[in-house]
Design goal:
The protein is globular, with a radius of gyration of 18 Å. It has helices at about 40-50, 70-80, 95-100, 110-125, 140-150, 170-185, 195-205, 220-225, 230-235; strands spanning about 5-15, 15-25, 30-35, 55-60, 65, 80-85, 160, 190-195, 205-210, 215-220. It has a single domain, classed as Rossmann fold (3-Layer(aba) Sandwich), CATH 3.40.50.300. Strands 6-7-8-3-9-10 form a six-stranded mixed beta sheet, sandwiched between helices. Strands 2-1-4-5 form a four-stranded antiparallel beta sheet, with helices on one face. The protein contains nine helices and ten strands. The termini are far apart. Strand 4 (about 55-60) and strand 5 (about 65) form a beta hairpin. By secondary structure, it is of the alpha/beta class.
Length: about 240
């Protein structure tokens, strides 16, 4: 049984069909990438999984149990953490405090949560020096690292990452994807939405391509690179 199974998922925003019959699975301890252009339905898929939007129909199974229609708080408690596009760092809190907020679903002692937050700086050494600085003072790339660390503080079985490289300089993009690879090595499962298809496929075990709300193609990175249509449309050609 896969960790996450999505079957015939349909999501509507009013009269607009954002997702139409989407079906795929995510196996445990893998990185799965959702690729596609703007408006394809990638972020909507993550929002449906994390309970931010309610499916019109279809099934979402996590560890074999339905989570379709549950609210975000209930889904976080099941073991799914969502790092949304745009980082959403709390500017009035320090970096350490921002990270500690990720454990709010666990009701652990504050001293224990603080210790775990400090341990996150081993995984994200670039932000260690900013631990007691306000979140708004960090660069975009550093804020992205804080957002991912905050998501990991929930100890998720499944981490949903929405456009983690958006707006970042190339050298920072590489650092963020190195962290994603390290997260997987530590046993996490990641569902990654990313427009930078080349970088996504470097860390992914499997990729799916969404087009106008439909899942049109899926396969291993090698399979996707072998499809000329996918390469031309999403991977910028062979060069």
């Amino acid at each position: 049984m896969a960790l996450l199974d999505i079957t015939d998922l349909n999501v509507r925003y009013g009269e607009i069909e954002a997702l139409r019959g989407v079906s795929f699975s995510v196996e445990e301890e893998t990185v799965v990438a959702l690729l596609g252009s703007n408006g394809a339905g990638k972020s909507t898929t993550l929002r449906a999984i994390s309970g931010l939007v309610a499916p019109a129909s279809g099934e979402i199974l996590f560890e074999g149990k339905s989570i379709a229609g549950l609210g975000p708080e209930a889904i976080v408690k099941r073991g799914i953490a969502h790092v949304p596009e745009g980082r959403r760092i709390f500017p009035g809190l320090t970096v350490r405090e921002n990270i500690m907020l990720g454990a709010s679903n666990r009701h652990a002692p504050t001293r224990s949560i603080r210790r775990e937050a400090d341990e996150m700086f081993d995984l994200f050494p670039d932000i260690r020096v900013f631990a007691d600085k306000l979140g708004w003072t960090l660069s975009g790339g550093q804020q992205q690292m804080v957002a991912v660390a905050r998501g990991l503080m929930a100890r998720p079985r499944l981490l949903l990452l929405d456009e983690p490289s958006l707006g970042l300089a190339p050298v920072i993009v590489q650092a963020v994807f190195n962290i994603i690879a390290e997260i997987q090595k530590r046993g996490a499962t990641v569902l990654l939405v990313e427009q930078n298809a080349r970088m996504a496929l470097k860390v992914a075990d499997y990729g799916h391509v969404l087009e106008t709300g439909r899942l049109n193609f899926g396969g291993t990175p090698e399979t996707l690179w072998g499809d000329e249509r996918i390469v031309g449309a999403y991977l910028g050609g062979r060069g």
